[in-house]
Design a protein that fits this description.
Structural class: alpha+beta
Distance between the termini: 74 Å
Largest sheet: 13 strands, mixed
């Protein structure tokens, strides 16, 4: 049976317009799929479910035990329509289904920054408590990676194979550049460019095209492009944290992710902006002491009982 004819037959069945002969043809197709079209075989459990439902809903036995078609049960057969829709979808997409591809996953722990070289030569630095995944066929047709947490990318240029980064619903497309992607639960997503140019999309909608020294911040249903310092985009890869004129909340997020801690406060910190430069040899307490000294409105102090949860008051 040609594909077009099968689709027409499924459509007729869904509309309750199949003749007895056409139902038999449909049953026959289910039986022969595995021999006539080995690349379009339905899973055995699905084939069994479809055939069982058809036999139950459109056939009955006469006094001799011979099965005949009963058109009185077309209404009951309507319950099978979603299953048949799945069958049609499965066969339609069978030709383009690809074998499963193995993914390599690299993760970092708390206070760990790790450098990774991808198969195409691109370099990735993973910040603490982050993960990166890339497929086994990386660099064969497209260069695609997935990230959770924060990563800085220095991408090898290859016009024929764009480099793609997925971070939840955010997609970043580049040809050759260096940039940072941050996607952490409970925080705004960020894409910041050090060199080159990238395009950022969310759910197939272009949010912006970023050039060097620009960043895109995505919070809830808002996206904002603003300037940043190209050097600061990658400062954390060497153990430093350099943030210029940012909200206090962003500084706290950076510390939460790196140390695996949590800050809580009843104070309104939205108006607090500061510039910090934390070196790699500073302890968490050193950093908290600095923040307490430079934030003047309101005055804040950090207290903790377990070194994991900090109260700001």
């Amino acid at each position: 049976m040609r594909k077009k004819e099968l689709y027409e037959l499924i459509a007729k069945y869904r509309a309750g317009q199949c003749s007895a002969e056409e139902v038999i043809i449909l049953m026959s197709w289910l039986d022969k799929m595995h021999t006539e079209k080995p690349d379009a075989v339905l899973p055995e459990t699905m084939q069994a479910a479809v055939k069982a439902a058809v036999m139950k809903n459109i056939q009955r036995s006469n006094s001799n035990g011979t099965r005949i078609i009963s058109w009185r049960k077309w209404a009951a057969a309507a319950a099978l329509l979603p299953v048949m829709a799945v069958a049609g979808w499965w066969w339609k997409n069978a030709a383009i289904r690809k074998p499963s591809i193995a993914w390599t996953k690299v993760s970092t722990g708390l206070r760990e920054v790790r450098q990774i070289q991808l198969p195409d030569g691109s370099q990735v630095w993973l910040n603490a408590a982050s993960s990166l995944e890339y497929p086994s066929d990386f660099n064969t047709r497209e260069r695609l990676v997935r990230i959770q947490g924060q990563g800085f990318f220095d991408v090898e240029k290859d016009i024929s194979k764009p480099f793609m980064v997925e971070a939840d619903n955010i997609h970043v497309k580049v040809l050759g550049t260096s940039f940072s992607v941050t996607s952490a639960s409970g925080q705004p997503a960020r894409v910041a460019v050090a060199t080159g140019k990238v395009q950022v999309t969310e759910n197939n909608q272009v949010l912006g095209i970023l050039h060097a020294a620009q960043q895109l911040i995505i919070a809830e249903d808002k996206a904002m492009i603003c300037s940043t310092d190209s050097v600061n985009v990658s400062s954390w890869t060497t153990g430093e944290t350099i943030l210029n004129n940012v909200q206090l909340q962003q500084v706290l997020w950076e510390l939460e992710r790196f140390y695996g801690i949590k800050f809580n406060t009843a104070l309104d910190l939205s108006a607090c902006k500061l510039t910090v430069n934390f070196s790699s040899n500073m302890t968490l307490q050193n950093k908290l002491d600095i923040i307490s000294k430079i934030v003047v409105a309101p005055r804040i102090h950090f207290t903790t009982t377990d070194n994991k949860h900090y109260l700001i008051r």
